[in-house]
Write a structure and sequence with these properties.
Number of helices: 2
Shape: rod-shaped
Strand order of the largest sheet: 1-2
Distance between the termini: 125 Å
Low-confidence stretches: 115-123
Strand content: under 5%
Largest sheet: 2 strands, antiparallel
Helix content: 55-70%
Structural class: mainly alpha
Length: 123
């Protein structure tokens, strides 16, 4: 009888240990599933952010290309005249455009201005 009790007790202990092991494994599987779900949400959020940043980068690159082309156009032959023609609509009709052209270099700290001569003015 004692041997049956011992074998029954051993079987019971083995069953309890198996149930504990099963519970631990199920807990780890559940924890892994929840972690993967959260990781997928974070990945999706980062991909959306990356898409928004890429769209903004494309817009800014397009602006940069346009600004570079504009800059290059202004420094081509007759770029100054093109700029003046483009800017002419910005002046009110009852205003006079004055363009200052310096015949002498501007005075610096090392070379003081000589006299108070007129800077060439051309309307």
């Amino acid at each position: 009888m004692e041997s049956q009790l011992l074998s029954l007790s051993a079987e019971r202990q083995e069953l309890v240990c198996s149930l504990i092991g099963l519970a631990v494994k199920l807990g780890l599987i559940g924890l892994t599933g929840v972690s993967l779900f959260q990781l997928a949400g974070a990945y999706q959020q980062r991909m959306e952010s990356q898409g928004e940043i890429s769209a903004v980068l494309e817009i800014e690159n397009a602006k940069l290309v346009k600004a570079r082309e504009r800059f290059d156009d202004l420094f081509m032959v007759e770029g100054e005249q093109r700029l003046i023609r483009e800017q002419s609509q910005w002046i009110a009709p009852n205003r006079l455009r004055v363009i200052w052209q310096s015949k002498r270099p501007f005075p610096t700290v090392d070379s003081p201005a000589s006299g108070s001569g007129n800077q060439g003015a051309r309307p």
